[in-house]
Amino acid sequence: MVHSTDPEQLLLRVFGLTLLVAGLAELVNASAAVGAFLFGLALTGQVADRTRRVIAPLRDLFATVFFFGIGLSVDPSDIVPVLPVALAVAAAGTATKMATGWFAAARDGAGTWARLRAGSALIARGEFSLVIASLPAAVTYPRLGPFTAAFVIVAAIAGPVIARLVDVVEARARVR
């Protein structure tokens, strides 16, 4: 039913069946997203491999639009009151990610600078998972959306800045 040698036909069939399964999930009072997710799990073999290749650009586009929509749902003025807590949580997260990278790289025999780079590479990772995970809870806890937005902004800025700082400090240390 899904198999097609034509990429456009494959894409249309997969999207059509995804919408059908999502609609059926809604009919039984389940989430359309869960229905679509389960359909994605059900695709296997060559069809799944070809679908992954064909859908990759659209997946990235839809992910971008999804996060844009989440950004629109947060009033920027609601971020200011939760910013101190977001900064504290981001600092704790940064410290634990730096420690994780440090110890993981040490187990692999890496030197000091490689350990620091490993830790700094982890800083801006996983925050978008937090956005997705916080969506249902934001209905019950209205400050969670602004907190999550503030946290993601802080981590998204801190990660590359700290990674670059590690590189600059390492370069200066090597010159001495």
From TrEMBL:
Its main location: membrane. One of its GO terms (cellular component) is membrane. GO terms for molecular function: antiporter activity. Residues 5-166 form the Cation/H+ exchanger transmembrane domain. It is a multi-pass membrane protein. The chain crosses the membrane at residues 20-42, 54-74, 86-106, 118-141, 147-166. It is found in: Membrane. This is Cation/H+ exchanger transmembrane domain-containing protein. It comes from Catellatospora coxensis. The lineage of its organism: Bacteria, Bacillati, Actinomycetota, Actinomycetes, Micromonosporales.
